[in-house]
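FW: tagging you since you asked about this chain on Friday. Here's the raw sequence from the shared folder, copied in full. Didn't touch anything.
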Amino acid sequence: MSQGDQTEKSNAPIGIFDSGIGGLTILKALITALPHEHFIYVADGARAPYGSKDSETVRRYALEITDFLLDRGVKIIVVACTTASSVAADAVRLRAGRIPVFEVITQGTKAVFDVLPSELKCLNEDGEPPRAARFALLGTTLTVKSGVYRKSISEHARRLYLQEPVFTELSCPLFVSLVDDGVWNGPLADSTAKRYLSEIRAFHPDVVILGCTHYPVLSESIGKAVGPEVQLIDSAFNIARTVKTTLHRDRMLRESTVEGSLTFYSSDAPDAFREHAERFLDTAIDMVHHVELESLEKV
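HL: got it, structure written out here
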């Protein structure tokens, strides 16, 4: 690759997509880790929530957005939607070809074992595995139904010679509605979390996996509901770290001391999305472009 081609590739944006504003948790971590990179964020609010759709529909949505991002010359794609990650990650990778694709389930699994107490990861003095770790997954209906998080975590535990984890899963669709409506804390968020999560608290998990990128926005209320001793985990930090490592390894880091640009597209209510994004990212956003994703479907 010539120097000019390398520079063009390094200056290309990173593409991120979600069904709404939940993926901003991923974008925020990426901006912190890679402040000089350009980002394109696509929010498919017009067809949200993804979690109540069937697998084939979500896969089609994900591929439409993938095509949209590829047409804009992205150098990496981040599937910042757990539902899409659970049913469409392989299809997105196939469509993206040589463009690296990162999704939240693989990175979320790594995050889970990063924070698991050491006494649950090390063999005891008799060479036996410790007691089984207890995990609770909070996710959308489709993510829970897919079973991909349970499978990913169980496989990782086996690679570490640990006991089969004890697992419970719960769909929390109202959490997505709260976040998209801008209700991120306070009495309504607290009461909704308490109502949803009483059984999770009684389960006594070691780790609660926030298995939808909307849910970390409600961390304060979720933490109150499950108890202060429980670790809450999401994939944002691990994704940011992995993307940065990949860019460095492949010599794709943007070489500039100037902050990168943020470009936003929304399939629904751009002004409402801009208001929420400015609040969450704590930065002014000049414009959110409206996009009709249905019209972009390719045969």
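FW: The two ends are 32 Å apart (CA to CA).
HL: agreed, and The domain at 3-103+237-296 is CATH 3.40.50.1860 (Rossmann fold).
FW: great, closing this out.
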